[in-house]
Amino acid sequence: MTKWRLTLLVYMIAAGGATAQTVVTPAAAPPFSLPDQNGTPVSLEKYRKSMVLVQFWASWCLPCRIENRRLVKQYPRFNDLPFEILSISVDVDRAQWKNAIAADKMAWPQLLDDTNKAGCAACRWGAGTLPASFLIDPEGRIIAVDAASLLTGDPRGFRKLLQKRLAPGSR
User: What is the value of pTM for the model shown?
Assistant: First the structure.
């Protein structure tokens, strides 16, 4: 019976049934400046005026890796919009992190959080469960949580949301 429950849980996670996006009252996104794969600091502020999906993940997290592959399939559909994904890993091992990025073929900015530091980005963003994702509007406000599930589950709806939020006078 336990094997059956585990199989069902893995299936639910793989099918995306374990998460659903939630639109929230806009709140200021906590700022961060984190190193990318080359050690260059990248800040959220750099992406002001764009819609940004901030995704927290780890190489050892199976649901994260499944979500990464789904995001890879959908990411090119939004190249015509001012939209970016910023993936923030909570990995401790840089080699495992880089190997996972290559294996999952993630073509958007990859950042590394130091969860051993006080005030780590994952802590300030409340990313206690992985994967965690937040949609940020052009003014730097969080407008949805678990937003990756909307992008991967309903790309047309996600596009409409982006277009609506990016339209002049919509803010």
Answer: 0.85
